[in-house]
Request: fold
Amino acid sequence: MNPCPCGYAGDSSGKCRCTPDQIRRYQEKLSGPLLDRIDLFVTVAALPAETLLKLDNAKAETSAQVSSRVSAALQVQYRRQSCRNSILTAQSLDAICQLTDQNRQLLATAATRFGLSARACHRVMKVARTIADLSGNEKVESENLMEALGFRDGLVNQPSAFS
Ligand SMILES: [Zn+2]
Reply:
């Protein structure tokens, strides 16, 4: 989804002329309960064509490398809980994420600050568990939780999140 009707809100080009009110109305087309069901929000800045052409593919992970990392993470999940992280119940999430008190506090603070629902918090925990699995971490580290919270910043960065 675009950040605003013209698609340029937040872009460094300054092309966006949408009013805060237009942006809010545009974003409200997606209801809260629907947004709650989305796992990852990623803000992607528009790149000029010349930059895209110059991107160094040699440094990027190949699809085969990513695929084997994902397979390994899935194996870890099946071994630990006999299912994928994405279908964990709220009850089993606590036992499987085993957040430290500090991380629990971090999540609670973020939830209050950004108005995350309980459902959204559970999504963040599942994403954090998955990031930890992809990184080969046995426990969910605070950096995994921070990264998972970062995937909700599509919402957090929207002007309407603070109005
Ligand atoms: Zn705009």
